[in-house]
Amino acid sequence: MTYTSPPVHNLCMTGAVRTMEKCPVCKGKFQGEPLRCPECKTAPRRYYLDLWWKGERHRIFTGRDNYALDSWERASRLLTTIRESIDRGSSQSTNARLWAGITCS
Ligand SMILES: [Zn+2]
Question: Does residue 40 fall inside a structural domain?
């Protein structure tokens, strides 16, 4: 396996909130932060976190307790929580199943 640097270098971990969905009205792509259809102003109903860690991609579809990421706020809050946990080097507050092995070195 080759080591690939994450796209942004000064962060312990890089990540973004994304969605698999397309606009239900025009089938266009959601864009921006928070994600919206630029034409129809619709928002996705499901989000996921796209994390890069040591050249590996991790996709996280649910939060702790398996709640669905059904709003931008919820998804970005989880992203912040994961970032803070990793930066602190804490493993007890993170979901081991979802981001096992992700620790800041
Ligand atoms: Zn649209």
Answer: yes
Contact (CB, 8 A) for 83 and 13: yes
The domain tally of the chain equals 1
CA of 36 to the centre of ligand 1 (A): 8
Q: Is residue 97 part of a domain?
A: no
User: Over the chain, what is the mean pLDDT?
Assistant: 78
Strand order in the sheet with 56-60: 14-18, 48-53, 56-60
Q: Give the Å distance between the CA of 63 and the centre of ligand 1.
A: 27
Residue 7 falls within a domain, yes or no? no
**Domain limits for position 21:** 14-88
Over residues 64-97, the pLDDT tens digits come to 778 899 999 999 998 888 777 766 665 444 454 4
The rounded Å distance from CA 7 to ligand 1 centre is: 29
